[in-house]
Amino acid sequence: MNRNDHRVRLLYSLIAISSIVYSPICQGEATGEYLLFPHIGATFRSGLADDSSLDDDDYKYGVDIFATSSYRNFLFLGELLLAKDEQEIERLQVGWTVGDSKVWLGRFHNPVGYWNTQFHHGSFLETGISRPSIVEFEDDNGLLPIHLTGLLIEGVIEHDKQGLGYALAVGAGPELSDELEALDVLDPGSGSHDLSLTLNLYHEPVLYAPTQYGLFINYSEIPAIRIGLNGIRQISAGVYGNWTSQRWRLTGSTFYLRNRLQQLSGALTDDFFSSYLQADFNRDDHWTIFGRVEWTVGDENDAYLALFPQHINDRILGGVRVDVFDRHAFTLEISENRAQGDTFGQFMLQWDAMF
Amino acid sequence: MRMKERKLRTVLLCLCLTLICVNSTAQTAQRSLLLVCSYNAKLESLSHADVRKIFLGVPVNTGQVRLRPILNASDPFATDVFLQQIIFMSKRQYERQLLSRVFRLGDQRPPEYENIDMLAKALLDTPGSLTYMWSEQLEQQTGLKSLGVLWTDSNN
């Protein structure tokens, strides 16, 4: 993509987000929110293999721009990421509120598991710096359809002061080239995209409280003609939980991934399990200590994983986050990582804020 | 004679202490946290469960009007009591939960007022708006009414 393309994309993205905030119906009765999540981060790696495609150090900066507005039962939501390496509309949704349910059309985050629909691209909301690799974004060596474009229905049914939540998504999923590529709403005709379906059900022991436990299943048909495959049929299913107390937060999930790689000569099916468990301890309103383990079972010689050489299969990390000056955070994260044929240490520093 | 004086003094002391206790009880009994809206609002009462939903950003309507929460930041103790007794969250948890809903579902966070007069004006100007305030704060405002007691300071 040349520089002019980048500028045009940036312009279109800003117009799209601005239209949510400043559209004529957003006057009068309408209300809205406009949030900025800037970040600056540095990553240092040690012990990389000689032929590793990762760099010894990496620097990133950017801002996630989020806007939402509502007019009676109508909702508009947009999220635009302007970062060093990408400028992309991450979410662009129009929705209707029907009772305790919401019906959305547009590009949204796939409700596959817990993490993906809790934190989106607002890294300030995450305690740590990195995401669990199984729910990593498509353009960061992610394995799953993280963004879909289509229909999303979600809500919570109240029962005896508890909640039964649901999310059903039907849309166009990603295409696989050198990485998964979600449908680009600024250029919807580009690439080849096929069906992706997700169902997520969860239980809230206390209605609308953060603690919840759930299960999910996704089926995706992923075109992959650019890498010489007819396509990939992917099923991901799993369970997750998020438990909070005054000081502690535990978040964990297990994914089962089954991929059927369709070649001209036949089909190859492989499967594996991937899990993560993160613990956060809030010492007080400023200091949070956190740790996470991620592990993959059945990844040896997996045909689908072999297509993502930088994907991290196992990781153990620890870190500390300091919240200061009302919505600024400095985070330090140290981890040991195992990717395909590469084991390395990683040291990350990041400043996040929310305005 | 001395015995009589002592008895009289003791009785007087007990009377004084009783009066002090009764007086302070009468004062603290009035210290209630109330759910408050505009006097013109067509609302009679709301359950604590509904109040919790509204202040967590969940859409709740009465007729055609969406009920809109307003945070009363004029007294941090009132906010602490409200969050602990009605929302069942700390302030930090509540802020994160609101932010999470905004980011996930496109909801809006409640506006927050530190000035009680501006809060009262917002209640009068915004149809369907609700807040919480101490009973003595409500007594100093006009055009507002209580929809019920959320919490009473019965410990003092």
Number of helices of chain A: 2
Low-confidence stretches of chain B: 24-28
* CATH second-level architecture of the largest domain in chain B: 3-Layer(aba) Sandwich
**How many separate structural domains of chain A?**
1
Element order of chain B: H for helix, E for strand: HEHEEEEHHEHEHE
Could you give the distance between the termini of chain B? 39 Å
Strand arrangement within the widest β-sheet of chain A reads 1-2-3-4-5-6-7-10-11-12-13-14-15-16-17-18
The CATH topology of chain A corresponds to Porin
What is the count of helical runs of chain B?
6
Distance between the termini of chain A: 31 Å
Name the CATH superfamily classification of the largest domain in chain B: Periplasmic binding protein-like II
Bulk shape of chain B = elongated
Biggest β-sheet description of chain B: 4 strands, mixed
CATH class of chain A: Mainly Beta
Q: What share of residues of chain A is helical?
A: under 10%
Stretches of chain A where pLDDT is under 50 for at least 5 consecutive residues are none
Structural class of chain A: mainly beta
Architecture overview:
The complex is a heterodimer of chains A (355) and B (156). With 355 residues, chain A is mainly beta. Chain A has a single domain, classed as Beta Barrel (Porin). Chain A has two helices and 18 strands. Chain A has helices at 3-22, 115-119; strands at residues 31-46, 57-71, 74-83, 87-98, 101-109, 147-159, 162-172, 175-176, 180-181, 195-204, 212-222, 231-244, 248-263, 266-282, 287-297, 312-324, 328-339, 342-353. In chain A, strands 1-2-3-4-5-6-7-10-11-12-13-14-15-16-17-18 form a 16-stranded antiparallel barrel. In chain A, strands 8-9 form a two-stranded antiparallel sheet. The longest helix of chain A is centred in the first third of the chain and has 20 residues, at 3-22. With 156 residues, chain B is an alpha/beta fold. Helices cover 50% and strands 21% of the residues of chain B. Chain B has a four-stranded mixed beta sheet. Chain B has a two-stranded antiparallel ribbon with strand order 2-3. Chain B has a two-stranded parallel sheet with strand order 5-6. The longest helix of chain B is centred in the first third of the chain and has 28 residues, at 2-29. The radius of gyration of chain B is 21 Å and the shape is elongated. Chains A and B meet through β1, β2, β3, β4 and α2 of A and α2 and α4 of B.
